[in-house]
């Protein structure tokens, strides 16, 4: 089973990071791929929570929260029909969250996949990890931008000295 991970220190306390990740209804704040989220289970948080995420292109994907250890770890897994089978399939994406000094949090995002057949094995061994890392880094960038708005606004608003 191939897996890959990326990590980043985010300038926000761990409880703020956990709050953003565990508030599935507002996941669009940090997941730009999802334009709409609809719960498909009665519960809205914790393990077993199911939801459907829709992309801007209208594609719909169903997920289940398969791990929830507040405020340290949350994992999302795609829900698929029994007949769905591809050479390589994403099995889960999980966030490890740990304090990193005062007011900062280290977030590690881990993706795991399964491979099927020779083509899937080759894709998983040689191509999938690099491809996934791009998406994982983008997700952490979006999470950081959702949680660090004051820092960005201050940096963007700073004037640069004029050359004389």
Quick one: biggest sheet? 7 strands, antiparallel
- What distance separates the N and C termini? 60 Å
Question: Helix- and strand-based class?
Answer: alpha+beta
- The best one-word shape is globular
Q: Which residue ranges are poorly predicted, with pLDDT under 50 across at least 5 consecutive positions?
A: 151-164
So how many helices? 3
Work out the number of β strands: 7
Reading the helices and strands in chain order gives EHEEEEEEHH
Rg over CA atoms, rounded to whole Å, is 18 Å
Helix share, percent: 25-40%
Task: Describe this structure as you would to a colleague.
With 164 residues, this protein is of the alpha+beta class. It is built from three helices and seven strands; from the N terminus they run βαββββββαα. The protein has helices at residues 14-22, 117-147, 149-157; strands at residues 3-10, 36-39, 50-54, 60-69, 73-78, 88-99, 105-115. A hairpin with a 5-residue loop joins strand 3 (50-54) and strand 4 (60-69). The chain is globular, with a radius of gyration of 18 Å.
Which characteristics define this entry?
single chain, disordered C terminus, globular, 164 residues
Please describe the topology of this protein.
Layout: E1 3-10, H1 14-22, E2 36-39, E3 50-54, E4 60-69, E5 73-78, E6 88-99, E7 105-115, H2 117-147, H3 149-157
Antiparallel strand pairs: 1-7, 2-3, 3-4, 4-5, 5-6, 6-7
Brief account:
The protein is α+β, with helices and mostly antiparallel strands.
């Amino acid at each position: 089973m191939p897996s890959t991970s990326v990590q980043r220190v985010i300038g926000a306390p761990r409880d703020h990071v956990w709050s953003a990740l565990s508030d599935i209804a507002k996941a669009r704040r940090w997941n730009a791929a999802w334009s709409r989220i609809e719960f498909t289970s009665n519960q809205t948080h914790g393990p077993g929570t199911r939801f459907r995420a829709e992309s801007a292109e209208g594609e719909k994907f169903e997920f289940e929260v398969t791990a929830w250890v507040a405020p340290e770890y949350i994992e999302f897994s795609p829900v698929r029909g029994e007949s769905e089978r591809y050479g390589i399939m994403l099995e889960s994406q999980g966030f490890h969250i740990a304090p990193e000094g005062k007011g900062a949090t280290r977030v590690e995002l881990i993706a795991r996949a399964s491979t099927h057949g020779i083509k899937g094995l080759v894709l998983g061994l040689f191509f999938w990890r690099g491809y996934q890392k791009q998406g994982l880094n983008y997700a952490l960038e979006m999470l950081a931008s959702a949680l660090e708005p004051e820092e960005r606004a201050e940096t963007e608003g700073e004037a640069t000295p004029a050359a004389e």
